Structure formats: structure tokens, C-alpha cells
Amino acid sequence: MKLLRLPFKREHKLKTVLNVLGITALTLGVFSTGVLVGNGDIRLTTDNKTNKQVANSVPNDLDYSSVEKVYDSLRSNFDGQLDEAKLLDGLKEGIAAASGDPYTEYMNTEAAQEFDGDLNGSFTGIGAELTRDPETKSIVVIAPIAGFPAERAGMRPKDVIAEIDGKTAFDVTITEAVKRIRGEAGTVVKLKIIRDQKEQIDLEITREKITIPSVTHKTLENGTIGYLKIARFADDTVELATTAAEDFQAQAVKGVVLDLRSDPGGLLDAAVKVSSLWLKNKTVLTERRDGEVIKTFNSAGRSPLEGIPTVVLINGGSASASEITAGALKDNNAATLIGEKSFGKGSVQQLIKFSDASVLKVTVARWYTPSGKNIDREGIAPDQEIKADVTPGSAADNQLDAALMELKK
Q1: Are 144 and 128 contacting, i.e. CB atoms less than 8 angstroms apart?
Q2: Which of 225, 294, 313, 348 is 20 to 30 A from 288 via CA?
Q3: Is 6's pLDDT higher than 50?
Q4: Three-state DSSP class for 84?
Q5: 3-state DSSP assignment of residue 334
Q6: Can you list the alpha helix ranges (DSSP code H) found in 206-307?
Q7: 348, burial (CB in 10 Å: exposed 0-12, middle 13-18, buried 19+)
């Protein structure tokens, strides 16, 4: 009986995730019922070849005889009902989790569909991006999404989710955490969070249907300053950001604020093209595997914002693709960074789609800024550090005020 053979031979590439961002990030990155699944950055690919890089100690094919023995013993002795599909999903999830990489994850068909939909900004949940700390095995908030339930309830970047509805969230996958936080609009999820490694806070958050455009823009200071906010790097980001840049150019703005705060990341291609709005024939990032450069991404196309003084706003929720853009503009002297140190995600994930529409999200490389820095776990430090004013009831934005002051110099 060979019930547990996995369809590794029938795979083809769908996308590549950097994670927030995103989302982790994806990564990343990216949203599921208001929670970022696998924060990261996603690189779209069209080739049908799989990566050949494998650890030397890993054989081409695994010997599943020991797994068959466990299965046979479970089937013969378990007092309860077993589900074949769930057993197979569990095996695949376990293989991915055994990599020890928080951004490598198997998603069944349902989870993969949610992942794809969430990346493009429509989901039901609390409105927060999450990641998993591989050292502490804890679920960590990258950032609550502005204006939605998690933020309104008081959730902050770097909060650790200790419990979900009274059950521990320690040593669970991002997918499992998402499933437990997910629910119908109007229902409540109870979270126990730990802040600054000491303060315990209980939150009751009512889930909502959430739809967010990836880009919004307007002008400030009597039309002299363009303000461009990117919430995530999704399918519509390049078109919307290009429209905003052309609007700014037509209005002859004297400066631009690019707001990447709490942006968990997303599509790598989008990050490169957004950076190209400022950069002409410049390096945006390089990818390295085992320390060797395997690909260089350069800016391309029109650059309507080239030479226009620009400030990029970042904070601890800025991850993956947003860090790529911030790093590219900083290293090419195209912008000043203001705010707080970014999240620090410097890896690239490939999305490999199988015949049943399930997906393996797997780390395939590390990305480096044009100056040759990998920011994994370190983040990008702003040129001017401005801590956000979190005074209760205050509508002021001291970081944006600092950006506007910088552009007036």
C-alpha cells in the first residue's frame, strides 16, 4: 500500500515569494482573514523548471517505509475516525515544517486559494499581519492594518500572540494561527498578547470583511507634495503607483512622501517596478544563493519621479518587498528614510503549485540591497529616527510631519 507518495514530480512554478510579508510576508506576503500568512515577497515566474539546489545529505527520493509503519500502526490502533486527506496534508505540512524555515510552508488547496485572494486585499478577519519567530516558535504581529479591528483594539507591531480563544499559540504554524483567528464577520476572537516581553494584554476583536486597495495617493501642502501610500505589493500595485506618479508629475509636485509603514510586502516584481518610478538604469536588488549572486534586478521603464526629492516612511511593520523598495531608493541616493527600523526579512520564497492547486512556499534565495547588505533580522535603519506618537486619541502623525519638514529644507 503506497498511500503516502507525494506528487513532487508533477509540480510547476506559480510565483515566488520574497513575506509579508509578505505577507511574510508577504511575508509578506500575505493576508488571510486579516492575518498575514507567510510574510514575504513574491516573484512571478513563467518557467517550468524546479530549483535544483538541495542539501548534499538529502537523497533524491525519501524512503517512506518508516512512515508506512507509523501509518499502519495508527490505522490499526487509533480509537477514532481517520481522514485520508487530512493525513496526507499533515504529512506534506510536516515535510515543509521540518526545513526549520519559518517561511517554507505547504498549503492545501483551500489555504492556497485563500493565500492568493488575501494577497490582493479582500478577506474576513481582524486586519493584522503575522509572522512566526523560528527561535521562540511564537506568532508575532508584524503590524495591524490601519483603520481595521486589530488596530482599533490596540494591537501593535512586535506583539506576541500567546493564546487564541484560550488555547496556546506557542509552536503553531502561521496557517494554524490563521485558521484559529479566522471566522465569520461579526464574531469575536479572544487573544492574549505579550508586549515588550513582559506585559500581558487581553484583546477581544470583532472580525470584519476587509477590502483594501494596495495603493492610495493624494497631494499635501497645497498641492506641492505628493503622498503615496502602499499597503502591500499586489497585482494592482504597479498600475496604481504608476498612475499616482504620473499625477504627481503632471501637478509638478516639489517633493514626494512614499509611505511604506506597516506594509508587509508582496510581489517582488511590483517592488522592482515601483522602485523604477524613481530609478533609471539602477540596481534594485540582487539575489544570492550560498553567497553567490544568482540574479540582479535592475530598474526599467519610465521614471517619472526621478530627481524629485523623496522621503520614504518606514516602521517595524515594513517588511520584505517594502524593504526592497526602501533599500533601493536609499542606496541609490534617491530618497531619505524617516521613521523606525524596518522588520528585517531578507529571504525569497518560491510558490510551487501542484496538480490539485495546493502550493509549496519554499525559501530559494536571499536578497541584498544595492550596497550588498542582507537585512534579514536586522532591518533597515532610517536616516532620521522618529518614534511614532501613540498618544491615545491623537490624530497627529509626527512621522509624516517630519517627512514634510524634510522636504521643505
Answers
A1: yes
A2: 313
A3: no
A4: helix
A5: coil
A6: 237-250, 268-275
A7: buried
Q: How far is CA 276 from CA 28, 177, 324, in A?
A: 20, 36, 12
**Rounded average pLDDT over 43-60:** 54
Per CATH, domain 136-210 is 2.30.42.10: yes
Q: What is the pLDDT of residues 294-344, one digit of tens each?
A: 999 999 999 999 999 999 999 999 999 999 999 999 999 999 999 999 999
State residue 247's pLDDT score: 98
The contacts of residue 79 (CB under 8 Å, 6+ apart) are none
CB-hemisphere CA count at 13 Å for 350? 18
Boundaries of CATH 3.90.226.10 in the chain? 213-284+298-343+378-408
Active-site residue numbers? Answer: 320, 331, 345
What does 10-76 look like in DSSP terms, one character per residue? Answer: G-EEEEEE---SB---B---EEETTEEES--EEEE----PPP----TTS-SS---HHHHHHHHHHHH
The whole-number pLDDT of residue 26 equals: 28
For 185-200, give one letter per residue: b (16+ CB within 10 A) or e. eeeebebbbbeeeeee
46: pLDDT strictly greater than 80: no
Position 92 pLDDT exceeds 80: yes
pTM assigned to the model: 0.71
CATH 2.30.42.10 in the chain: give the residue spans. Answer: 136-210
* CA quadruple 30, 188, 155, 393: dihedral, nearest 10: 130
What's the distance, CA 99 to chain centroid? 19
Kindly state the average pLDDT of the residues 130-136: 85
Q: In this structure, which topology does domain 213-284+298-343+378-408 adopt according to CATH?
A: 2-enoyl-CoA Hydratase; Chain A, domain 1 (3.90.226)
Rounded percentage of the chain residues whose pLDDT exceeds 70: 83
3-state secondary structure at position 384: strand
Contact (CB, 8 A) for 284 and 297: yes
Q: How much is the CA Rg of the chain, to the nearest whole Å?
A: 22
Q: Please report which confidence band the pLDDT of residue 118 belongs to, taking 50, 70 and 90 as the band edges.
A: low
**DSSP classification of residue 244:** H
Task: Give the C-alpha separation, 33 to 174, whole Å.
Answer: 12
Contact (Cβ atoms closer than 8 angstroms) between residue 207 and residue 184: yes
